[in-house]
């Protein structure tokens, strides 16, 4: 506690031998952050400049990649500062802000994937109605809701936590995730129930909707022509792989606060960093290689001499 300015500081205690390996940590994380920005931005750039990519599916992909960059930007700059600092600390208010943005953007990821699933469902199962249903207005509403709903819901626990009495000032993490609750003296039943409702709204329900949608697509594709099945596989498989990857990482983040004592510190650090390293790099690789039109434009961008 800083009495002069009445600011509460929290120590980020999840680092492993940062004094010994600070420059190695810094170089690796800095390179990964640059790679995340460049890879995601390249595909967003291609979607922006090419008219044939101005379709709802590609707009949602661009939004998903932008979301990944924003999520990384919430975490990486602070990590880089901490690696070069003697003390790894953060003010409690800044910690709650990071907590809010991290989980808001995480919820947005699920809602954007749900919007993409609905887009694929209409495209494959109701192709004649697709231009009428997936208009620019519909896409804009989906995008606004995908970012607004999680932000407004996660703001409640973040705001309530600001007034909670703290009994610990050491966070067993390298950034402010749900281990923030371990700092509080008491976590009320009402707070737990409210967080479960948020988890249901911005994660579980979208996942169930996505699974239901892709099941319908699978059934209808199976009954249709080979061309329809091929189209469904090409466009739906990348979305499903991204969903599975992100869901597994989020499941780890949710349960780690309950099992933190069972994980060695080094394992916990590696797993925590995977949440913010693996997924933002997985998205552009998956969409860049698996989506035919994006892959074609990437080849033209990087290998123009080889394209006839």
Automatic annotation (TrEMBL):
InterPro entries recorded: GPCR1_Superfamily_Member, GPCR_Rhodpsn, GPCR_Rhodpsn_7TM, Olfact_rcpt
Primary site of residence: membrane
GO cellular component: plasma membrane
Key word DNA repair present: no
Coiled-coil regions listed in the entry: none
Protein's membrane topology: Multi-pass membrane protein
Residue spans crossing the bilayer: 23-46, 58-77, 89-118, 139-160, 196-215, 236-255, 267-289
One Gene Ontology molecular-function label: G protein-coupled receptor activity
Domain G-protein coupled receptors family 1 profile: from-to ranges: 39-287
Subcellular location: Cell membrane
Pfam families per the UniProt record, alphabetical: 7tm_4 (PF13853)
Alphabetized UniProt keyword annotations: Cell membrane, Disulfide bond, G-protein coupled receptor, Glycoprotein, Membrane, Olfaction, Receptor, Sensory transduction, Transducer, Transmembrane, Transmembrane helix
Family listed: Belongs to the G-protein coupled receptor 1 family.
Protein name: Olfactory receptor
Protein's organism: Seriola lalandi dorsalis
């Amino acid at each position: 506690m800083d009495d002069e300015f009445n600011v509460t500081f929290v120590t980020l205690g999840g680092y492993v031998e940062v004094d010994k390996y600070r420059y190695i940590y810094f170089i690796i994380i800095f390179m990964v952050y640059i790679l995340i920005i460049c890879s995601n931005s390249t595909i967003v750039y291609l979607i922006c400049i090419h008219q044939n990519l101005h379709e709802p599916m590609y707009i949602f992909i661009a939004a998903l990649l932008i979301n990944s960059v924003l999520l990384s930007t919430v975490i990486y700059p602070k990590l880089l500062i901490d690696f070069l600092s003697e003390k790894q600390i953060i003010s409690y208010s800044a910690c709650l802000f990071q907590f809010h943005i991290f989980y808001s953007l995480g919820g947005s990821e699920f809602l954007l994937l749900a919007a993409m699933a609905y887009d694929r469902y209409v495209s494959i199962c109701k192709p004649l109605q697709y231009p009428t249903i997936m208009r620019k207005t519909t896409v804009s509403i989906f995008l606004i809701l995908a970012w607004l709903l999680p932000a407004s819901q996660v703001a409640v626990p973040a705001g309530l936590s600001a007034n909670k009495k703290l009994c610990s000032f050491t966070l067993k993490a390298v950034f402010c995730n749900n281990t923030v609750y371990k700092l509080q003296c008491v976590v009320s039943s009402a707070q737990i129930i409210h967080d479960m409702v948020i988890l249901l709204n911005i994660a579980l329900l979208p996942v169930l909707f996505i699974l239901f949608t892709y099941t319908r697509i699978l059934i209808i594709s199976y009954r249709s022509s080979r061309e329809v099945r091929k189209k469904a596989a090409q466009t739906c498989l990348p979305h499903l792989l991204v969903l599975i990857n992100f869901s597994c990482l989020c499941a780890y983040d949710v349960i780690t606060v309950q099992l933190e004592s069972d994980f060695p510190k080094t394992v916990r650090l590696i797993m925590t960093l995977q949440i913010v390293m693996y997924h933002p790099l997985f998205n552009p690789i998956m969409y860049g290689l698996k989506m035919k039109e994006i892959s074609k434009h990437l080849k033209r961008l990087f290998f123009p001499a080889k394209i006839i």
